[in-house]
Write a structure and sequence with these properties.
453 residues; 2 domains; 5-stranded antiparallel beta sheet; 5 helices; 26% strand
Length: 453
């Protein structure tokens, strides 16, 4: 027993001696900021097992905005700041959202690559958010932690908690024209450090304050001659580690002019109509044809309620959906443009890309990766996933009641072309539109969720 005690104390003495020789920044990096001066306690995080590697450079966004003069909107050319910018001196509808992280915290996922089964030890790290970056002028500690959790080779992510310590973190409210930045990442509140591999190498988890990602048509008139796209979206890191917009394009929650405006809010149920956004014809610009007005659960499936016309055009000058009177669903069925062009949404730089600057239409393989990472197998866990997927085709008692969501996706086969994501009662379907891309030739319209480029 004495020998064991001697071995233990000698080992600890050696460790402590080594630690004392390290400079403070090195100790803070090694232990993720877990060393607290004056506490007399050193917390050594568990070693990451060799059969798991955590994703690096993760991000969490807090939406916090106050602005009464944001039109005309000017795209950022420099870093985001906490400054107030007068757009034209004319009052606009007030955008006022207090972004917070509470002491209860939020659950976040960190993607992982696992090659076997084991247990990831618990970990905790803390950073102080300076008073200058809070709305109430009170500095606040923020902790990232995860409990000990088992994993297998099929595990795609671990669950962690991000929470304030001692009181709610009220993020500084940002100006729409100043609080985005040309990197579209907003203002950095703080970075937490965590080990991501068995070698103990560390990476950062960035917490960022952002006023919102303005819609592609924010402050601009569409083909109806009206400014109707004043939508603000919030970036969100999905279970796949990629950054997506938190809501579909055109959702009420993103609409500055809607009573339900709250850009950080996502669907509160699978049938939350405030989260049900615009409905696009494949490859078409956000020219007004896609806009919807919701006041209750929609009762007529995936079809538009806007007016329709039958005259085809490569560049429509109206906000109406273009259809053809024939019921032929074959490849000979005319699509809305005159000229065949599968690349109108292919990249962020594509001429008709409907997504905000820095974002684009997701590809089929990107939807597939998300579905796998989030372990989505039906419409219920599609809704409970980080992206809160839900949409129009989810009305009980109707012929389409086995659907919960259809969404456009760019499918890569031999070329870019129309693809879709559908989620059912059981299972998902990702890939080519049926009938050799006939989906883009008929009156069907789908919602869009954008992914960071």
């Amino acid at each position: 027993m004495k020998a064991l005690h001697h071995y233990f104390t000698s080992t600890m003495l050696s460790i402590c001696t080594l630690l004392c020789m390290l400079p403070t920044p090195a100790k803070a990096q090694l232990f993720g900021g877990a060393i607290k001066a004056g506490k007399g306690i050193i917390v050594i995080p568990g070693v990451v097992p060799s059969t798991i590697t955590l994703a690096t450079n993760q991000k969490y966004f807090v939406a916090s905005v106050y602005d009464t003069d944001y039109l005309p909107y000017t795209a950022p050319t420099g870093p985001a700041t906490t400054a107030t910018v007068a757009a034209n001196g004319v009052a606009d509808l007030t955008a006022n959202v207090q972004g917070t992280i509470t002491t209860t915290g939020v659950t976040v996922s960190i993607p992982v690559t696992a090659t076997g089964s084991s247990t990831l030890p618990a970990y905790s790290t803390t950073v102080t958010i300076p008073a200058a970056l809070t709305e109430d002028g009170i500095a606040c500690d923020l902790t990232l932690s995860w409990a000990s959790q088992s994993y297998t080779s099929s595990t795609k992510s671990i669950t962690a908690t991000l929470k304030a310590v001692g009181g709610t973190l009220n993020a500084k409210k940002l100006d729409i024209n100043a609080g985005l930045g040309n990197d579209y990442l907003g203002v950095l509140l703080g970075q937490l450090v965590y080990p991501y591999n068995n070698a103990g190498t560390t990476t950062t988890y960035s917490v960022r304050d952002i006023a919102g990602i303005p819609d592609k048509m924010f402050g601009k008139s569409d083909n109806g001659g009206v400014v109707r796209h004043n939508f603000l979206y919030i970036p969100i890191t999905g279970e796949d580690g990629r950054v997506w917009l938190n809501n579909d394009l055109g959702a009420n929650y993103a609409n500055v002019n809607n009573a339900s405006f709250n850009p950080a809010q996502q669907a509160t149920s699978r049938k939350d109509y405030n989260a049900k956004g615009s409905m696009f014809q494949w490859g078409r610009k956000p020219d007004g044809h896609e806009l919807r007005t919701y006041s209750s659960v929609y009762k007529t499936g995936m079809f538009m309620e806007t007016a329709t016309v039958t005259t085809r055009s490569d560049n429509p000058s109206h906000p109406y959906r273009i259809i053809n009177t024939t019921s032929d669903y074959s490849d000979s069925y005319p699509r809305w443009p005159v000229t065949v062009n599968e690349n109108l949404w292919a990249t962020e730089a594509s001429p008709n890309n409907p997504c905000p600057v820095g974002y684009r239409v997701p590809r089929g393989n990107e939807w597939r990766s998300y579905i796998q990472s989030a372990a989505i197998t039906n419409r219920d866990n599609a809704y409970t996933s980080r992206l809160r997927l839900c949409n129009l085709n989810d009305v009980d008692g109707q012929w389409w009641n086995n659907y919960s969501l259809d969404a456009w996706a760019g499918y890569y086969g031999n070329s870019w072309k129309a693809g879709y994501l559908s989620v059912y009662d059981t299972g998902c379907d990702i890939g080519d539109a049926p009938g050799a891309a006939s989906m883009i030739r008929i009156i069907t319209t789908f919602p869009l969720r954008c992914i960071q480029n």
